[in-house]
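QA checklist item 7 of 12: single-chain prediction sanity check.
[x] sequence parsed
[x] length recorded as 181
[x] structure emitted
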Amino acid sequence: MNVARRGRFLNSWQSYRKAGVNIALGTDTYPRDMILQMRNASYMGKIASHNLKAATAAEVFSAATLGGAHSVGRGDLGRLAPGAKADIVTIDLTGRDSLRYGPVRDPIKSLVDCGIGDDVDTVIVDGIVRMEGGKIPGISFAELRDAAQAAGERVWAGWQEWDPHGRTAEEMSPFSYTLQN
């Protein structure tokens, strides 16, 4: 998504796959939502290729799991198999209090086409439950968001000191609408 925000995209999902390029998905900026990244990759792959069958749900799901593991040389990640790490994520495909999913016939297609990160219910890393019922023990998302906002405010206030051209945060990333005092 970060690439698409800047008006760029992969030329063709199929051409990279045919050339044997390992395609991996990740996220290093907001929104940090791998499920949304899968949907964006699927849509952008279809648009760039002018092909409805490009970047299928199975392909982008594999890129988000096996592709990432392959890119870092970790055959013990990204799959459920003997000898692999016991990393498991369970997803609530009900949409909770929404009709976002509708009827689910193919769970992977439904996840890629309709899911969001908030649908993650349980995360198990190397056999240890790290999230259950959508909650991470000992973590307050409200406190974490407040701390992140405060850190962002400090960064934006000192942006000119970091930018080699002395630009402000507003010059580098203008507000959607002009703020009035």
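[x] summary fact logged: Residues 141-172 form one domain.
[ ] second reviewer sign-off
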